[in-house]
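Figure 2 data, in text form.
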Amino acid sequence: MVMTPTDRSAITGSQLDAIAWEFLASEFAGQIYLDWPIERRLNAYLLHHGPAALLTNGSACDDLLDRVMSKIGPAVRNGVLPSPSNFD
């Protein structure tokens, strides 16, 4: 069986970076949704704010999650996310 690679060119790295920052600045990255797993919060963000097409592209969604995770530290340092010590 020959496997066909997924089309990773549909969204660029800079677009994924922008979406990651938008997610981190959204309500889905905030305290209200802390009891949800990060994947569920990211999926909810994409459903509400788009691009929802990422939800059907596993490779792009995984790449987006990786970018979100790599930006959590900088987001805390830049004030986009509150410091974990500020949570109840």
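Caption note: Helices lie at 13-24, 38-49, 58-77.
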